[in-house]
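Example 3.2
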Amino acid sequence: MAKVIKKQRDFHQVSRGWNFILHLIAGIFSFLCVFPFLFVVIISLTDEKTLATNGYQLIPAKWSLEAYRFVFETGDTLLRSYGVTILVTVVGTILSLIMISLYAYAISRKSFPYRRFFSIFAIVTMLFNGGMIPTYMVVSQLLGLKDTVWALILPLAMNAFYIMILRTFYSTSVPEPVIESARIDGAGDFYIFLRIVLPLSLPGLATIGLFSTLGYWNDWFNALLYIDKPSLVPLQSMLMRIESSIAFIQQNSQNSSLSLTALQSIPQDTSRMAMVVLATLPIIFAYPFFQRYFVQGLTVGAVKE
């Protein structure tokens, strides 16, 4: 008995040691993931002349907010661009979740008679695309969405890959007997979907919601195609235009003394880092809202009844 207790004690001691090592490895890996962004923030707060003289430093000799001042002055509508991006992200994510969740639920039910047809219909759109010119003609001419906020929302609202992910989640995580029991009790399809399926599918919905949020927040190409009004330019497109202006001045600095003077007054490297911070920092705050649902999703299917 004493030997058994001693073996168990040794096992727990080894487990604690390995636990410490694994936590240390995870901590180092997490630091390596976070450090590049923290370093970008430090560079964005560094004085441009100090950066040119001393190079990149963790603790710069002189701090400065000149890069952020330049970005906000150059992009005089930057705050408005933030508002457009936030509006597009929120409305687009909600609309995308509604459409994708309904489509995926329909094709996940074996009782749906057109399940195979709509599944193939979604998969075909993943394999074949109409092309940029037909898409532009449909959005701008047929639907008349050019220079409207809907041109930034509707093209990204449906995603066949997300539909397949959510369909698989419904099939594996929503028990069929629960749905059949609700039908026997007289519940309709929408009641079952809203009161039974959605509460059981929060991890899957959170995953699709985060993917859609990132897609809308980082989208700049649709604005390049469909938006000409300055009041509707989203954040990513606005930052791209500021970067293009800096690149234009750099390329023409040798041909004009005025451009050379302007180039010397521009915080080139630090302003680029400031743009990265302005574009990345707000979306980071979206992760805590989805994190607990991701943790729940790790245990889905872990227990078999």
